[in-house]
Design brief:
- This protein has helices spanning 18-26, 28-57, 61-90, 100-122, 127-177.
- It is an all-alpha fold.
- The chain has one domain.
- Helix 2 (28-57) packs antiparallel against helix 3 (61-90).
């Protein structure tokens, strides 16, 4: 099918093959990711408030700094366990085709968070400059989180459509036998 043809009637590529889905459902790393993601988001939300408060009011630097370090630590935890999950499910630690672009943006998220920690530890830049870098890191984190949410929503829809197709195929097969 060419790119100029309509997409109606095209089969959607499922996010997981049946073997990948079985590995995803069997590994403990799926649960670990499911637990870490909302914890990291909560840390992000709290930290975002503290960073913005510091930037607007010039108070709470220690709390804002600690919150960014905690958020970064959780990011590292979810990235490491996510790479292990990806290895178990897809056979490679990063950049599996199903999550290629999410992993690309994740690398930018990691780079910006790491740059913040490096600036803070080395004392580079002013605290305000460091907090602006934290905000840039958080902006890329939001983009990355949206990527994953959209991917999982699409996978859920595809999975539901596939499940609803099964009875139809069975009914069609049964009709052919009569």
């Amino acid at each position: 099918m060419s790119a100029s043809e309509p997409t109606v009637g095209r089969q959607k590529q499922p996010l997981y093959t049946s073997a990948e889905r079985a590995r995803r459902d069997a590994t403990k790393w799926t649960l670990v990711q499911g637990l870490l993601a909302p914890i990291q988001f909560l840390a992000f939300a709290i930290s975002l408030c503290l960073v913005i408060n510091y930037l607007l009011n010039g108070v709470g630097l220690a709390a804002a700094t600690l919150s960014v370090v905690i958020k970064t630590s959780l990011l590292y935890a979810i990235m490491i366990t996510g790479a292990i999950w990806e290895k178990v499910v897809f056979g490679r630690y990063l950049f599996a085709p199903a999550f290629f672009w999410e992993d690309v943006v994740s690398m930018l998220v990691m780079a910006l968070h790491t740059a913040y920690v490096a600036m803070w530890l080395a004392g580079w830049g002013t605290p305000t400059e460091q907090m602006w870098l934290a905000l840039a890191a958080y902006a890329t984190y939001v983009v990355n989180a949206l990527q994953f949410l959209l991917k999982f929503q699409a996978a859920k829809i595809t999975s539901t459509e596939s499940a609803s197709d099964v009875p139809t195929m069975l009914n069609t097969q049964g009709a052919l036998d009569t």
